[in-house]
């Protein structure tokens, strides 16, 4: 995550605002084509986690992996070919470039398609590794790939005559490396099966209902998180879309905090749900929600209250910071609300009840398109950010209450008070005080130190105010002292 933040301003300087706009389009394209997953990665994750609680399920897990693998690769290759064929039309009819030639954009889109086809199956292998609680192995590969992707891209762009072409060729190579490495790790972890894996139609019949429900959630989820960018690149000039992309990259730092917590929790949620251990499930739920709040809320409010200062420090470009600061503030609040409610969404899937999340996402997705077409032409990129904020608030104030009518009944009030309101009020109070003290014209080092102090104080006090987080922090400190 840090590597990505460090190199994003370098990409902007080397590729220009329009070139970086194409990078944003590439990221959105990757996310949109995640619908090819069809729920297979989460199904594999869930089944491997269930096999840890029920040994009788272990015999079919290798066959499930092989079956999912064949389907996934077939769809990925097909998608890559289709994008390559449609690249000239996308370049001429969807991307509003002024300084880049149509042929350059077309070539870049074609390379995007090939890169996506090699990288998409990575989600399947990640899901399997997470289900076996091999997060460390998967994350080592992902960290290596992220480092090579960033450093290598700058290196090849520095020596290549066509920087845009070099960038996407390198993305293709790193996508192949990361997918291949995770595939090898997962199959090695499955060697205990002791027999040759095969494609099984019966497993498709057994798991298709859960996969279909998860897939439907994935489709509408992708529409909610990426459709704004797909529409913005059509409506806005490519340079302005580049500023939106840059703000979104920094706001997406919050997902770097949210996703690791959720992926670590999901197998344990599945295990406790399978054992009907409601007592420990309630304890884990509130502990994890408070951990999420402690990690997420101070960081999100720092981005929302000091967007210009952070962008200026990050990019060292006042014009870029001015264009993107308001967008960053709104996106950060939206991502924070979405992240706070995300543990409830994972709990629903772990309990085998993805329907509520699907219905919520479907209603929001239907509302998203008309809202974007009405608001974005009038208000520009900031309008798209406000649409995201409105939709994200629905998860906190609508989905969570509905979830607690069926799962963990009687725990909703505690969630709002201890897991949400307390950490949010404390971190917001500290942030507002700091906003009235810190001057954006301070020297860079002093400004960065002041922002770090504000964030550290917010994290410390939210930890102390959250009962479960405070207990976990004290227990951790005691272990350190004993060791």
Structural summary, described in words:
- This protein is mostly helical and 483 residues long.
- It has 2 domains: 1-199, no CATH class; 208-483, no CATH class.
- 85% of the residues lie in helices and 0% in strands.
- It has 18 helices and no strands.
- The protein has helices at residues 2-32, 40-53, 61-93, 102-119, 122-131, 135-159, 163-189, 201-235, 238-251, 253-274, 278-305, 307-315, 318-350, 355-379, 381-403, 412-437, 444-465, 467-482.
- The two termini are 30 Å apart.
Number of strands: 0
Quaternary organisation of the protein chains: single chain
Shape: globular
- Could you tell me the strand content as a percent range? under 5%
State the separation between the terminal residues, measured CA to CA: 30 Å
Essential attributes:
about 475 residues, mainly alpha, globular
Q: How do you describe this structure in short?
A:
The chain has 483 residues and is mainly alpha-helical.
Write the layout of secondary structure elements.
Blueprint: H1 2-32, H2 40-53, H3 61-93, H4 102-119, H5 122-131, H6 135-159, H7 163-189, H8 201-235, H9 238-251, H10 253-274, H11 278-305, H12 307-315, H13 318-350, H14 355-379, H15 381-403, H16 412-437, H17 444-465, H18 467-482
Helix pairs in contact: 1-4, 1-6, 1-8, 1-9, 2-3, 2-5, 2-10, 3-4, 4-7, 5-7, 6-7, 8-14, 8-15, 9-13, 10-11, 10-13, 11-13, 11-16, 11-17, 11-18, 12-13, 13-15, 14-15, 16-17, 17-18
């Amino acid at each position: 995550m840090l590597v990505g933040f460090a190199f994003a301003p370098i990409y902007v300087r080397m590729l220009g605002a329009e070139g970086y706009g194409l990078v944003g389009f590439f990221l959105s394209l990757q996310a949109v084509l995640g619908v090819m997953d069809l729920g297979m990665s989460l199904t594999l994750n869930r089944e491997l986690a269930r096999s840890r609680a029920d040994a009788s399920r272990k015999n079919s897990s290798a066959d499930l992996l092989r079956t999912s693998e064949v389907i996934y690769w077939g769809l990925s290759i097909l998608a890559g070919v289709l994008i390559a064929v449609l690249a000239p039309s996308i370049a001429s009819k969807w991307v509003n470039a002024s300084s880049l030639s149509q042929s350059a954009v077309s070539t870049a889109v074609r390379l995007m398609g090939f890169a996506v086809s090699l990288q998409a199956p990575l989600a399947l292998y990640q899901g399997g590794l997470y289900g076996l609680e091999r997060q460390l192995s998967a994350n080592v590969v992902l960290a290596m790939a992220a480092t090579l992707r960033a450093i290598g891209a700058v290196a090849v762009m520095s020596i290549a005559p066509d920087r845009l072409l070099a960038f996407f060729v390198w993305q293709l190579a790193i996508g192949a490396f990361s997918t291949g490495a995770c595939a090898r790790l997962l199959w090695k972890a499955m060697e205990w099966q002791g027999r040759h894996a095969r494609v099984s139609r019966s497993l498709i019949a057994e798991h298709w209902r859960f996969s279909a429900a998860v897939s439907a959630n994935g489709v509408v989820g992708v529409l909610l998180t990426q459709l704004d960018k797909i529409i913005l690149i059509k409506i806005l000039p490519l340079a302005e879309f580049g500023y939106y992309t840059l703000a979104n990259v920094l706001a997406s730092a919050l997902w770097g905090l949210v996703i690791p917590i959720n992926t670590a929790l999901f197998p344990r949620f599945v295990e406790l749900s399978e054992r009907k251990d409601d007592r420990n499930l309630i304890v884990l739920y509130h502990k994890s929600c408070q951990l999420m709040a402690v990690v997420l809320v101070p960081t999100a409010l720092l981005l929302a209250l000091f967007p210009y200062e952070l962008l200026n420090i990050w990019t060292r470009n006042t014009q870029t910071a001015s264009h993107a600061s308001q967008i960053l503030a709104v996106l950060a609040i939206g991502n924070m609300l979405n992240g706070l409610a995300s543990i409830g969404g994972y709990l629903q899937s772990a309990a085998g009840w993805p329907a509520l999340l699907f219905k919520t996402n479907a209603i929001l997705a239907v509302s998203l398109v008309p809202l974007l077409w009405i608001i974005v032409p009038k208000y520009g990129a900031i309008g798209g950010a406000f649409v995201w904020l409105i939709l994200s608030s629905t998860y906190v104030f609508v989905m969570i209450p509905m979830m607690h009518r069926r799962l963990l009944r009687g725990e909703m009030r505690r969630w709002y008070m201890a897991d949400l309101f307390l950490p949010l009020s404390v971190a917001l109070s500290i942030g507002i005080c700091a906003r009235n003290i810190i001057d954006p014209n301070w020297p860079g080092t002093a400004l960065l130190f002041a922002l770090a102090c504000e964030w550290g104080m917010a994290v410390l006090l939210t930890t102390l105010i959250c009962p479960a987080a405070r207990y976990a922090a004290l227990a951790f400190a005691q272990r350190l002292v004993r060791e």
